[in-house]
């Protein structure tokens, strides 16, 4: 032992477990009257946000949910979803946010697999939840949420209540001065998120308090959030816990602007009316903004940062966003890394680049997040791997999958990328999405980017099609922008002007491209359609 190992023990005065829950208590102490949540006609202060979160935690405890128990929620981007992110772990429970577009069988699997003790469900999703509950072995307490700001002209309708109590009545049961407890260990689980389950049942990804707290700090840095940011909820909060932004905003006492449905007019109205500074989403959200009808657009005179992840955004979309007044920050990550763990850290010297060169820099995924310890690509082109405190604890009840994901002391992403000389990574494809044609590797992303550069193309997805001669050839599925037209022959000629001939699609199909609720293209569905 050295001199620094003697009489310098860890104790309650000098060590406390990291948790994002302290962000909210601090914000409520400093800014109790500042608006924390906007939802329709509702304005909720930080003091009320903190009070209601404690009430929810107290009510959960009174209902017999023990620390480590699972509380599932199936909610839109509404105030109860934000309160659940704080109140559930304040009670020592673990939050499971269920994708609102799932079918009853998958919902039932998640409820049983997580051993859910309570379910809070928005009445927009009551019908599908009722079908799921009819299939489960668990017997959770069911709570209804009846949104008072649910619009009459909504694109969806409410279903009949299925619970034993309404959400507001549950919150009213709780103590507003509830003395919530810090986690006993920062390694304690804070939330559970299921992967998309494209092959077999989805895997349950477990987050811990330490990782969620570090993501809060890192999001502020990576997104360039100053004092009191205004954040528009275009990203579903059920997706990787909204990339941890439900906890992040309290670091700088920012305002959450809730948005139940992502529509161009609603986004422009919120940006203009509330002076939104930040929003997140997949490239499809950017496309809906820049392709909106002129009647849906609103001018704004302030800087708006759009954080995008999922598939690499097409260069044409990035250029369109810049022309529309948005600053795009490109992020990359996975469910297993709490959402974004890589950021395209912008350099001042890139500001002088022309449009195509600037877009090419923006399209790269970037460098590791401040809270990620290491990021690697082991070959000229190889699998991207992560190591650090914002990597999941593992997969719930699935030690074999956890061991495989963590082999060699790294989390293996399954994504293929290259490491540029300046240390920035650039994704080339998912390992399973590389098309091998005549022994040559073809990046589906490269082909998609070529298609996106055509002004008529709104969405493009490229998958492999079996070929007797070449083994595989590229097949493109294309959606056109409203009011635009182009033939397959014209698109093929466009591709040949920018790609090597062997990389060009051998076939183009014009039809709707299937997507997840977060805007990711479901290539596994397209592969089934190849025929």
Automatic annotation (TrEMBL):
CDD domains: ttLC_FACS_AEE21_like. PROSITE patterns: AMP_BINDING. It catalyses: 3-(methylsulfanyl)propanoate + ATP + CoA = 3-(methylsulfanyl)propanoyl-CoA + AMP + diphosphate. Keywords: Fatty acid metabolism, Ligase, Lipid metabolism. Residues 446-520 form the AMP-binding enzyme C-terminal domain. It is an enzyme of class 6 (ligase). This is 3-methylmercaptopropionyl-CoA ligase. It comes from Aurantimonas marianensis.
